[in-house]
Amino acid sequence: MIINPDQLNTNKNDISIHKNQFDHLASSLSKQGIEVDQIVAKLANFQVAIPSWALGAGGTRFGRFSYYGEPASLEQKLEDIGIIHALTKSAGAVSLHIPWDIPEDYKAIKELANSLDIKFDAVNSNTFQDQPNAKESYKFGSLSNTSKTVRDQAIAHNREVIDIGKELGSKSITVWLADGSSFPGQNNFQTALSHTQNSLKEIYNVLPDDWKLFIEYKPYEPYFYSTVIQDWGTSFLLANECGEKAYTLVDLGHHLPNTNIEQIVATLMWKGKLGGFHFNDSKYGDDDITVGSIKPYALFLIFNELVYGMNNNPQNPELSWMIDASHNLKDPLEDLIQSLEAIQVIYAKALLVDQHQLKEAQKNNDVTLCQEILQNAYLTDVRPLVKQARLQQHGAINPLKAYRSLLVREQLVKERGKHTVATGL
Ligand code: LRH
Ligand code: MN
Predict the structure, then answer these.
(1) What is the CATH number of the domain that holds 302?
(2) Which key words tag this protein in UniProt (predicted)?
(3) Residue 157's domain spans which residues?
(4) Total count of domains within the chain
(5) Looking at residue 228, what is its pLDDT?
(6) Which among 61, 225, 397, 423 is placed 20 to 30 Å from 263, CA to CA?
(7) How does pLDDT run across 294-327, given as a tens digit for each residue?
(8) Going by C-beta distance under 8 Å and a sequence separation of 6 or more, which residues neighbour residue 6?
(9) Which sign does the torsion angle of CA 252, 256, 261, 264 carry?
(10) Ion ligand 2, residue ranges at CB < 5 A
(11) Does ligand 1 come within 6 angstroms of the Cβ of 215?
């Protein structure tokens, strides 16, 4: 299923309502000296990669409830991302997970992605599951395993993932390790960490010059006592040991309750070691639910640090923006459209923060004014700016409304049937 721009925004009333709301907001922001066109341009350029593993119904250990019309191949996954991108104009990239999404025909896949204006962002390795007829098992770890044979198998897999990424035009690999322990005494922490460091270096050594290695951390799950790469500090030291092409990747769901993630972001950008994000939201653990659905203000504070960092930290490279989600209840495409909307809206609010005024108030320890500056931006309804950015790119003013009025899911079920299952989580 392909969506053409002329199928969108056919409701003249929606257009005029938007125009009124946008003109009203734009004039009040311009009166405050805010460059509205610049903000709209930044929103238009802000592209978030869609995880190839989150286009079907996700599951938990307690069960999985299928969602009809799921993509059964990488081609159909790209088609689904093409649908989201046609509606939102902010999903112009895909992040593949290997071996769940190994292309059968690289030429055809690249041509399809190109025709849908989708780029290949980071490729993800998988040493948290054993593949059929694999010689060694990752049950007791991969890059940290006490067995050199197992570590070598995991290193070889990561090198293969880089080769697949090179073939597709990707420029980065994300390494997340489930490696850890569920019982005190099970692992020697130092041995596990030094094995991991040396294994990462063997992967780093084959990284093309213009590539990046993203090291993703996580405090727990699937193991419940320790995780080798448990927090930002461990990822940061491993990235520094590897070299200048290695960075820390922040998955929002990979933090213990009440962790000050925005301070982690500021620290990593200050050191030029923030590589990118896996956006999602969570109430308790690594819930991987819709961005902005639980803690939107926390995400705003993170984007406020990102905007400051993007303005003041030339030492930190351009960031990779990716969603990492799993959908147990909602239509995966609707959920991803909502996440993209939340990211754009929160980014727009952060762009409204008067960073100079804030810096001045901070210097004067005017605590009340600091809070007022942030909350004024956060409490501004910026949705007309996000809609304007989409409209300028011939996207839908209301992507979710368009998704439903175009009966996309019904069409996908007609094309694919009710029993297709997408690879992934
Ligand atoms: C681990 C993680 C990682 C992916 C996986 C799908 O929890 O966030 O980024 O490999 O989810
Ligand atoms: Mn992740």
Answers:
(1) 3.20.20.150
(2) Isomerase, Manganese, Metal-binding
(3) 5-416
(4) 1
(5) 98
(6) 225
(7) 999 999 999 999 999 999 999 999 999 999 999 8
(8) none
(9) negative
(10) 251, 278, 324
(11) no
